Amino acid sequence: MAPRLRYPSHLLLTVSLLTAFAAVSNAGQLTVYWGQNGGEGSLADTCSSGLYNIVNIAFLNKFGNGQDPGLNLAGHCNPDAGTCAAFSSEITSCKDRGVKVLISLGGASSSYSLASADEARSLADYLWDNFLGGSSASRPLGDAVLDGVDFDIEQGGVDYYDELARALSSRCNGGCLLTAAPQCPYPDAHLDAAIKTGLFNHLWVQFYNNPLADCQYAPGDTSSLLAGWGRWTSGVPASADVFLGLPASPEAAGSGYIDPDTLLSQVLPSVKSAGNYGGVMLWDRFRDKTSGYGAKLQGSV
After folding, report:
1. Which residues does the annotation mark as catalytic?
2. Quick one: what percent of the chain has pLDDT higher than 90?
3. Lower CB density within 10 Å: C or N end of the chain?
């Protein structure tokens, strides 16, 4: 029998720490959008499910071009009547569980734009005072302080979202998360200048609803999706990590749905090899609740 080798305890500790660090560094997060379907349950229930690390409240979908900012949370509450302020305690309960909660700007259809840098800075002031660390008599979601702002900009031209990102970063002084949900064609038509500021923490790229672009999954073919993923992970600033944005059910998007088995066996092993891999984003909580998609990913993201 060969002699048993004995290593100094400090070397064993170093190896253990390096192994633990590798495991943590490869771990991803799961993000979900909540707020656009009254049947998805409460925000508190979403956070207490234990599935998600980050929840985006969707959407602040009216702003800019001289408009007063407006919130739309589907059947959950009536912003004009002030009933959305009741979510303050639910936001606090989410944060107590370690779940980050952000306000998401934009969405696929509504009335928003930024006509000037001054308008972008004005919106940053509004967001700071009404959702973040500032103060206002009319905070739509009550006194709870959100963790940051998500940019889900899917209409308009290349507006002043880079100015908005700079103004928010200045206001927050590093204390807020800035995230974005660009479309998978690279670079994004609306957010490229904003992303290039290097101020964003997370980018959950929407690898769906772009059937004519070479960047999403087609049944039986992962090549376009993985090529699109490669363009994003190699092209964004080093400050941001990149999430694989997916529909949580076939009904959640017009195209790009990947069944969980294919995702786990054929996509995630390649995706997770990127040094700036951040995790998976799901659209949305209602579809995820009905399909159980996120639950099937637990421990594998």
Report:
1. 154
2. 87
3. N
